[in-house]
Design a protein that fits this description.
The protein has about 325 residues and is mainly alpha-helical. The chain is built from 17 helices and no strands. The protein has helices spanning about 1-20, 25-40, 45-60, 65-80, 85-100, 105-120, 130-140, 145-150, 155-170, 175-190, 195-205, 220-235, 240-245, 250, 255-270, 285-300, 305-320. Helix 4 packs parallel to helix 6 (about 105-120) and helix 10 (about 175-190) runs parallel beside helix 12. The longest helix has 20 residues, at about 1-20. The chain starts with a helix and ends in a 5-residue tail after the last helix.
Length: about 325
């Protein structure tokens, strides 16, 4: 009986695929939906997922955007209902559907939102592999901002660095090579992903035509700050972090978001408390006031805080007056 059932399913699917290939799109779409409800009620999840995936691709390859998108969206619904967490297998398949959905089709955003939501059960912001694959699709389409957004939630620092270099060189100003990587590294750190932050920074500075260095001294002060920040996070010295932010304040003021990122980084990696509400003081004033209160608490546990920070100050002064070879 089981064998007969499998054969019956195969025959139905063959007929469906033939209908699509013959151009009977409406009838085929309705039949897919009919089988969707039937298989769902019977909890025949594996057959249902395979059917919806293949059907979605079939429609989309023939530019039947609405039908293909519809099957793709209900495929994700089945993934959720069946509690399928095989992200490694399904991420490439969902990416294939996403790539085939036209960017002008409104359902594309709906499909992506549902896919990320499904994968977020394995990771708060969505599975890193799915984000990486989606980032690559956007990159191929030259949608740099969207690609960068999804790379931030991936673990592919090298890929992110290459994207940022192309993004900066094609759409950024000449003097913004440091801004593109600084914001990305700070955002990675706010997501507690210091390994990818390090990888992205190293790859970017080694490969960007205007930088081409693997370590300080950099010609651009903001790059020196990021390099020292990554080292400070490894050492977990709060006072080192505070001195860095103080010394590089002029560079950090280039983007108002940096202070917010650094405040969160201070909480995550250095144990700072959330800042008090502002009462007329500048944002940086409150930021460093928070540091000072943290330093008072940290000094009781640290026997040699000043030795580490004096080196940072001296090194920073040297870097700012050096030139690249």
């Amino acid at each position: 009986m089981a064998t007969q059932g499998v054969r019956g399913v195969s025959r139905v699917l063959e007929k469906l695929e033939k209908s699509v290939k013959d151009g009977n799109f409406y009838e085929a779409h309705q039949m897919y939906r009919t089988l969707y409800f039937r298989y769902l009620a019977q909890k025949r999840y594996k057959e249902l997922k395979d059917m919806l995936y293949n059907g979605s691709v079939l429609f989309l390859e023939r530019d039947q955007q609405l039908s293909g998108s519809d099957l793709g969206i209900i495929l994700i619904d089945v993934l959720e209902k069946s509690e399928d967490t095989d992200y490694e297998s399904w991420s490439p398949k969902l990416t294939r559907i996403f790539r085939l959905i036209s960017s002008s089709t409104p359902e594309r955003d709906t499909f992506l939102a549902h896919a990320i939501r499904w994968s977020s059960k394995g990771s708060t912001h969505g599975h890193p592999l799915l984000h990486r694959n989606i980032a690559i699709v956007y990159w191929e389409e030259k949608c740099y901002a969207q690609a960068r957004h999804h790379f931030i939630y991936s673990q592919d620092g090298k890929g992110c660095a290459k994207l940022l270099i192309e993004f900066q060189r094609s759409q950024g100003f000449k003097g913004e090579a440091d801004l593109f990587i600084a914001q990305t590294v700070l955002q990675y750190l706010c997501l507690k992903n210091k390994s990818t932050a390090n990888q992205t920074f190293t790859s970017y500075t080694e490969q960007h035509p205007r930088i081409l260095r693997s370590g300080p001294p950099y010609l651009l002060p903001l790059l020196n700050f990021i390099w020292f920040l990554l080292q400070a996070i490894e050492s977990k010295k709060l006072q080192t972090f505070a001195v860095l932010c103080e010394q590089y304040e002029p560079s950090l003021k280039r983007d108002p978001c940096y202070v917010q990122y650094l405040d969160k980084i201070g909480q995550i990696f250095f144990g700072l408390k959330p800042p008090p509400q502002q009462h007329g003081n500048s944002f940086f004033g409150n930021f460093f006031e928070n540091f000072l209160s943290g330093l008072d608490e940290d000094s009781d546990d640290d026997d040699t805080p000043r030795a580490s920070t004096s080196g940072i100050t001296k090194k920073k002064s040297t870097i700012e007056h050096d030139h690249l070879d």
